[in-house]
Amino acid sequence: MDVPISGRDLLCLQLACAALGLLAGSIIIGVSVSSAAAAVGGIFIGAAGLGLFILAYPFLNSRFNLDRFLPSLGNLRIHPQPGNSGEEGASGDGGKSEGVPNSLSTVSRTLEKLKPGSRRTEEG
């Protein structure tokens, strides 16, 4: 049996569910004494936040024209700097931080020192 429901009633139902989720999550976090219970409250709050986002998405889409820049978010990539060889003192930013050791090489040297049987001496 299909029950007809208007668009306004559906929006009110979505808003009520999101508000109930926020309220339940806040109460659970407020009375919890363990971190597991607080995590459950956080899940409730996260679900309610997602519900509010779904509710507000049509408005946000029409107001900020999200179709224009949302597809470009999937194309974001991290590109390494040219000339970054991983050596100490070498940087890809034109020598702005000359003499500052590369953090990756610092971590690599520290790990080498911590390996069992490593007899490397401290380099000054």
Could you explain how this protein is built, in words?
It is a single chain. This protein is mainly α and 124 residues long. It has a domain at 7-65. It contains four helices and no strands. It has helices at 7-31, 35-64, 66-73, 103-114. The longest helix is centred in the middle third of the chain and has 30 residues, at 35-64. The model has no long low-confidence stretch (mean pLDDT 76).
Oligomer: single chain
Order of helices and strands: HHHH
Strand content bin: under 5%
Derived from helix and strand composition plus strand pairing, the structural class reads: mainly alpha
For the record, give the distance between the C-alpha atoms at the N and C termini, rounded to a whole number: 80 Å
Sheet with most strands: none
Let me know the number of strands.
Answer: 0
Helical residues, percent: 55-70%
Number of DSSP helical runs: 4
Short description:
The protein has 124 residues and is an all-alpha fold. The protein has helices at 7-31, 35-64, 66-73, 103-114. It is 60% helix and 0% strand.
Write the layout of secondary structure elements.
Elements (H helix, E strand, L loop, with lengths): L6 H25 L3 H30 L1 H8 L29 H12 L10
What key attributes describe this structure?
single chain; 124 residues; mainly alpha; 60% helix; 0% strand
